[in-house]
């Protein structure tokens, strides 16, 4: 069975035109056989936008589209295809009858990135495969030497033979740009209207923030292993239903224990305000071996199906007209 | 009528893992509420890859898929949606029965970009709206002040009220990276197999190069306003059919006269070798007002239809099995 789309469109949203001054003027040749010409970067540039690709189904079975928000140092590619070439969550949710928006956050991928230090506060940061290995819980501490020599967890679901493909998905990122990213995500929500947001890692943090700041637009939120949660006083009243999703090996990594504890405290705070706030701990369901990149793990479709089932329960009236 | 896809997949191709040394180690906080941690960028990074998104039709009407290669400082977004939100050439060629690959070249968009100066030879270059205005022939010399104040050609087909959306599509680029880009495009061709390549501007130059270097894979090539052409001696024998597409106002801009002359000389050289090498000058066909960004102009679907007709004539046996 195929994917029957009404249309595929993309757009940038958020940000503004900014006139930059004090930028370099350099003689450059971009064309073979052409002499260098002066490139004058002083002038108007777009800054602050994000990029979104909209897959609109011909016959959606749900009224709310799903927005897929990627994690730190990554792009919307996270949702498209796993590093081993298997279908990702974009494929799952389109076939499950949801129209889907896949976005590249501010500063990542097709969103482009503004100059530093003129606009961005610092030089770009880049993750090595070694740092990804540690962050993503692919193996115990000390189990990584390089892409060819390493000892992953025996039951790991991540396709560990495809580390080069994972490294290709990584993009530079900047510290201190959360406000830029959130502003652009709010612009996206305003443009899309009522929707479901599924966020991974850093994108899960942004999703939790937006669910709290724009509950009239975010009808349900799924936070996959966020490293941070919103803080500060909350307005009284219930927020849209929340689901956390957690993979395996959390107990072996102090940093993930801390991230989990922060999320659990926030979950409790939400529940006290009357919000449906649940957590899916995959190992508790007998689903073992999932990494922090569970949306790309070999069993990612099985996990997507659990999330889909939760969404249908959380939004029982979400039927397309 | 919708777009019926068998699948949507994406992948990176080309390049390699490279271990970088001498990279900064910096204390950074990427998570709100978390103390800064050391980010050590020394280690393995992916460099040299491009990104491609593959839209495979359920029932293609042509055996060869179309590869859409964007221009300098841009990404595959060029082909998706015009700055005014209208369908681009991706939409046209999918509905015309071709499976399509849209790529982001090395260093652009979702392909990511390696560090400079450690890997790339120089700092990034960025086009201002003023430089785009001049390059794209939106108006006569001296007709641009800023995005709000300007005098476009009276019959211009580019949606000039959407300059911010155009600026959002621009990404940083580097000079001196043609070999990187070409290597990755060749890796893409090897992966895809026999295909049609349509390139715009810088992407048209790469398409011409690849048609010459890999004629067993490139079955037809469409070069939209290239600024450069391959040079040097050619192996004897015919290459795949070539089509150039040119917009309006070329005669008003010395640089475009020069680009046109180079292409015409190469076209003649191809013809002398027995290659079908034709040019579609839109004004000669009564189609006026097209800019260098004719794939995003208001009449872009009309031009795509002309290209489609040429392809069917150039590849009369290109029927899907």
Question: What does it look like?
Answer:
The structure is a homodimer of 321-residue chains. The longest helix of chain A is centred in the last third of the chain and has 19 residues, at 254-272. The first copy, chain A, has helices spanning 89-95, 129-136, 163-169, 178-192, 202-213, 254-272, 300-314, and strands spanning 3-13, 16-20, 25-28, 37-40, 43-47, 50-57, 66-69, 100-104, 195-200, 218-224, 242-246, 277-281. Chain A contains 7 helices and 12 strands. The first copy, chain A, starts with a strand and ends in a 7-residue tail after the last helix. Chain A is α/β, with parallel strands linked by helices. At the A-B interface, β1, β2, β5, β6 and α1 of A face β1, β2, β5, β6 and α1 of B.
Topology:
The structure is a homodimer.
Chain A: E1 3-13, E2 16-20, E3 25-28, E4 37-40, E5 43-47, E6 50-57, E7 66-69, H1 89-95, E8 100-104, H2 129-136, H3 163-169, H4 178-192, E9 195-200, H5 202-213, E10 218-224, E11 242-246, H6 254-272, E12 277-281, H7 300-314
Parallel strand pairs in A: 7-8, 7-9, 9-10, 10-11, 11-12
Antiparallel strand pairs in A: 1-6, 2-5, 3-4, 6-8
Helical content class of chain A: 25-40%
Strand percentage of chain A? 15-25%
- The counted number of beta strands of chain A is 12
User: What is the tally of helical segments of chain A?
Assistant: 7
Which regions of chain A are unreliable across 5 or more consecutive residues at pLDDT < 50?
none
- Shape summary of chain A: globular
Instruction: Report the C-alpha radius of gyration of chain A, rounded.
Output: 21 Å
